[in-house]
Amino acid sequence: MRGRVGYASGSTLTYGTAGAAWVHVEDVNDLTVLGGPRLSSTRTDAGFAVGSGVEARLGGNWTAKAEYLYVDTGGGPVLNGLPIQVNKHRYDQMKFGVNYLFGDKPQAPLVAYNWNGAYAGIIGGSATMSTEGKDPSGTVGGVINNNGTGYTAGGIAGYNWQVSPLWVAGVEGDFSWFGLDKTSVDYFDSPASLRVDTSWLATARARVGYSAGSALLYVTAGGAWVNLRDSFQGSPARAGGPQVSSTQTLSGFTVGGGIESPFFFPGWMSRTEYLFVSAGKGDTMSSAGDLLRADHDFHLFRFALVYNFSGWN
Question: Do 62 and 147 reside in the same domain of the chain?
Answer without folding.
Answer: no
